[in-house]
Amino acid sequence: MRFRHPDGSTVHLAYCTNVHPAETLDGVLAQLRDHCEPVRRRLGRDRLGIGLWLARDAAHALVTDPSALRGLRTELEHRGLEVVTLNGFPYEGFGAEEVKYRVYRPDWADPERLAHTTDLARVLAQLLPDDVTEGSISTLPLAWRTAYDQERATAAHTALTTLAERLDALHELTGRSLRIGLEPEPGCTVETTRDALAPLTAIGHDRIGICVDTCHLATSFEDPHTALDALAQARVPIVKSQLSAALHAEHPHLPEVRAALAAFDEPRFLHQTRTLTAAGLRGTDDLGEALAGDALPDASPWRAHFHVPLHAAPAAPLTSTLPVLRAALARLVGGPHPLTHHLEVETYTWQALPPELRPRARAQLVDGIAAELTLARDLLTDLGLKELP
User: How far apart are the C-alpha atoms of 376 and 2, rounded to whole Å?
Assistant: First the structure.
């Protein structure tokens, strides 16, 4: 979906396909047929943007077989879909029964991460629509915190610098300008936007910036205005923003609140949980740890890294952090000029919701994704953007 900003520029809105597990190119093509095109039709649109997730094997197949890449582009056009952004965070296995810590490997100190992201950039340069010259890729925020020392930090810095040089060369070759955004996430070396300032300033290349995920922003209790002001002051480019909402519990000390939270404690993904105390931010790596005993203070609200559907906040006594998304979006695209032109709805946890909230059929998932995109569209038009055909 495309929108005209009052300054005349185009803002793109997509939804991320990591909600549909697929590790191979055949699986990606099936996603387009079974999910993406039906979402477009449900919205009554001639064109729909998707934030494509390509696992390692699918990306490798595309970059080594020009005919396969041409075939994917043709399939996108045939189904009324367009791609201006990729989700390069998960490397493989995102559809596994247990993802947890695996999603952070390989990290930016490992050669595989550079090779995979280079493949993604080469693919995206060929998938961009003919009238679009700028693409974006979100990626792992360096590494998970526990195995990251100075040696690995140096290796990651070198890899990202090499990637920037490759993107410069790709621009010269294709005329397509691609940028990579580190996506701060709780528990990682770069957990917050503040954590991103030092490494991104050290790299100092405008092709390497940040992806602002509004669920992660909220989980870490970051104020959107403060965070975005700091990025602007440091001249860190906001490559893209993922529109998502976290799970919020206002009174986690109450038994009924604990019981409601426990329904979201599931075995597939990590749900890092945070609370803001007078002494600063406290947290656990997973929701179950927070609920077990006194691992996390419960005198103040808790927020958990669980991407809940934008249009359907959990029932009381829980809620979502949609107000944080609204505030962030107003700053991102509500000013005289957009701070980013790429927005992506990223609710990948539909099948991790409590059983009674999960879609029971493909059509229900299509309806849910369409409802999220409708909410995002309404937020954008309320900010003065005009939806384009």
Answer: 12
Maximum pairwise Cα distance, the chain: 60
Phi, psi for 361 (deg, rounded to 5): -150, 160
> Can you say how many angstroms the Cα of residue 322 is from the centroid of all Cα atoms in its chain?
15
In a 13 Å sphere around the CA of 103, the CA atoms on its Cβ side amount to: 23
Q: Which distant-in-sequence residues (6+ apart) come within 8 Å of 227 by Cβ?
A: 192, 193, 194, 212, 217
The rounded distance, in Å, linking the Cα atoms of 177 and 121 is 10
- pLDDT greater than 90 at residue 330: yes
Cα dist. 42→48, 201, 372 in Å?
Answer: 11, 43, 12
Entry pTM: 0.97
Give the mean model confidence (pLDDT) for residues 22-45: 97
What end-to-end distance do the CA atoms of the chain give, in Å?
Answer: 8
What's the pLDDT tens digit per position in 229-242? 999 999 999 999 99
Residue 8: CA count within 13 A, CB half-sphere? 0
Residue 183's alpha-carbon distances to 20, 169, 239, 262, 263, in angstroms, are 20, 24, 10, 27, 27
Both tokens of 33, joined, read 């047929």
Rg over alpha carbons for the chain, rounded to the nearest Å, is 20
Angle at 270 between CA 264 and CA 272, to 5 degrees: 85
Cis peptide leading into residue 106 (ω within 30°)? yes
Taking the C-alpha atoms of residue 253 and residue 302, their distance in angstroms, rounded to an integer, is: 10
Q: How far is CA 131 from CA 50, 75, 134, in A?
A: 16, 18, 10
State the Cα–Cα distance between residues 215 and 173, nearest whole angstrom.
Answer: 36
**Are the C-beta atoms of residues 227 and 338 closer than 8 Å to each other?**
no
Cα–Cα dist 22/92, whole Å: 9
Segment (H or E) for 241: strand 238-243
Instruction: Name the pairing type of β-strands 302-308 and 238-243.
Output: unpaired
